[in-house]
Amino acid sequence: MIPLARPDITEKEKQAVLAVLDSNQLSLGPKLNEFEDKMAAYAGTQYAIACNSGTSGLHMIIAALGIKDGDEVITTSFSFISSSNCMLFERAKPVFVDIDEKTYNLDTAQIEEKITARTKAILPVHVFGQPANMNDIRRIALKHGLAIIEDSCEAIGAEWNGKKAGTMSNAGVFAFYPNKQMTTGEGGVVVTNNENLAKLCYSLRNQGRGIDSQWLNHVRLGYNYRISDISCALGIAQLERIDEILAKRQRAADLYMEKLKDVEGVILPIVDERAKMSWFVFVIRFEPWIDRNLVMQTLLKRGIGCRPYFTAIHLQPFYREMFGYKEGDLPVTEHVASGTLAIPFFNNITEEQIDRVVAEVKRAIGYAAIPDSEARLKRRYELGVASDHAVVR
Ligand SMILES: *Cc1c(COP(=O)(O)O)cnc(C)c1O
Fold first, then answer.
1. Residue 387 has what pLDDT?
2. 371 pLDDT exceeds 80?
3. Which amino acid residue places its CA nearest to atom 5 of ligand 1?
4. Which listed residue, of 11, 105, 124, 238, carries a Cα 20 to 30 Å from 383's Cα?
């Protein structure tokens, strides 16, 4: 069995966690401050507010920006559900813009037509670790007086035009669930240069306590979004190795790119020349003449972890119910989402494992090709390929 993801925890990380357990300060202790200082230094922002998940980080920013009932936020449907749920927590409405078929990020050319008098912000997601086009997003936000919230939960260390993901907006969020580039078990961090926003996040994280932090003085509706010092200690040790971690993932991505580049029917990730990728997952896409779900079932049976990334948010049952979204609303998002598959990808994946995954993908395509489908014949014609070698039914 080759898993889809696997955390990379060294002896140093284990020792760091054990030291906290011996310290008698399991929450709101010195490891929290140290983690926040080091995250801010890494991102190059003035403030970092650590919390118990990426989702809580996103929610705190929405709340701190005063986004509320009836407000609209422009975002993408090709994402993990929490990048939109964070608005619903404040009864604001996500307004979806379709994506670019190459990068899978927001198609910035379609943003302006979705802006209304109720629009308060744009929330781009740096999908799979590739930054969205922040030049366009910043220009549009400035022109219309909108805030920007970067969902950088998949993109720690990524860059756009030499600037770090998460730092090109009012605030950004990184997330540390075990399948992310670095982990704290569960956790997240808000990064920002805005003092007022940072202060509000500290308060929202800790039950709405006033900034003086008097224990039973609550000045606003807050939450328990605190992260333990145990998690912070793990995060500090992981952050110390972040360059090594990202380099290992780059190597794995390079190997997949090389070994899959001539496989008929597989569309590989495309990275914009202005972007520096921080590889979160490795997602391939199948051309329409390949039944993605059948590939997935075949791979799973053969012990290869895989999962469709993502299922469009606007077609999730409760989004359909709440907002009346339906098939056809976001054609590119839906087309891309029907063909994508994340394959095993983690820091210490070996070349042998990658070879096995590639061999299994090729084999599965043989089973899952829809022979003589119109799309396939057209593709073959374009490629000048005559033989049906991929079909081994
Ligand atoms: C991981 C992730 C989050 C946050 O997830 P948590 O599990 O709450 O930490 C948010 N947005 C995206 C796009 C993500 O991939």
1. 46
2. no
3. 54
4. 105
Rounded mean pLDDT of 138-153? Answer: 98
Which residue has its alpha carbon closest to ligand 1 atom 2?
153
What's this model's pTM, rounded to 2 decimal places?
Answer: 0.94
pLDDT score, position 350: 98
Q: Which atom of ligand 1 is nearest to the CA of 127?
A: 13
Q: What is the number of the ligand 1 atom nearest to the C-alpha of 125?
A: 13
Q: How many Å from the N-terminal Cα to the C-terminal Cα in the chain?
A: 24
Residue 185: count of CB within 10 angstroms of its CB: 17
* 261 annotated active-site: no
Probe ligand 1: pick from 89, 154, 223, 225, max atoms within 8 Å of CB? 154
Give all domains of the chain, ordered by start, each with its CATH number: 11-239 (3.40.640.10), 243-383 (3.90.1150.10)
pLDDT of 211 above 80: no
The pair phi, psi for residue 130, each rounded to 5°, is: -105, 120
CA pair distance 290, 76, nearest whole angstrom: 26
